[in-house]
Amino acid sequence: MFKPNRRRFDRHAVQFNVRLQAGGQTFDCHMRDVSPSGALLVDAPNLPIGTMAVLEIHQIALMADARVVRRTDLGIGIEFSKEGVGAIVAGWAMGQSPVGE
């Protein structure tokens, strides 16, 4: 049986490096998919759901507040805290990433 898609926005495959700050530590990760509401980070630490973090994207000098909303075998799902920030990240990422749709 399939679960219904509860996401508000479609996710788009991307591939680029990001940094995540959480709990006083900084982690180098890779963004694997993104939407205006959130992203999947692989090679990420196994942070507890609800952890507040800051996503850094040096290429566009962006720091975005986020919250861990899920953990999977692939990595962690984050939700952007401020509306509109995710749209900026998603738009830039889709234009920069070598991953095709």
- Terminal-residue CA separation: 26 Å
Q: What letter string, H or E per element, gives the SSE order? A: EEEEEEH
What is the spatial order of strands in the main beta sheet?
A: 1-2-3-6-5-4
Q: What can be said about the biggest beta sheet?
A: 6 strands, antiparallel, barrel
Radius of gyration: 13 Å
Number of strands: 6
Based on secondary structure, the structural category is mainly beta
- Taken from the alpha-carbon principal axes, the silhouette is globular
Output mean pLDDT.
85
Q: Stretches where pLDDT falls below 50 for ≥5 residues?
A: none
- The helix content, as a percent range, equals 10-25%
Beta-strand portion reads over 45%
Total helical segments: 1
Description:
The protein has one helix at 85-96, and strands spanning 12-22, 25-34, 38-42, 52-57, 62-71, 75-80. With 101 residues, the chain is mainly beta. Helix content is 12%, strand content 48%. The chain contains 1 helix and 6 strands; from the N terminus they run E-E-E-E-E-E-H. The N and C termini lie far apart (26 Å). Strand 4 and strand 5 (62-71) form a beta hairpin. The chain has a 6-stranded antiparallel barrel with strand order 1-2-3-6-5-4.
Q: What keywords describe this structure?
A:
mainly beta, single chain, globular, 48% strand, 101 residues
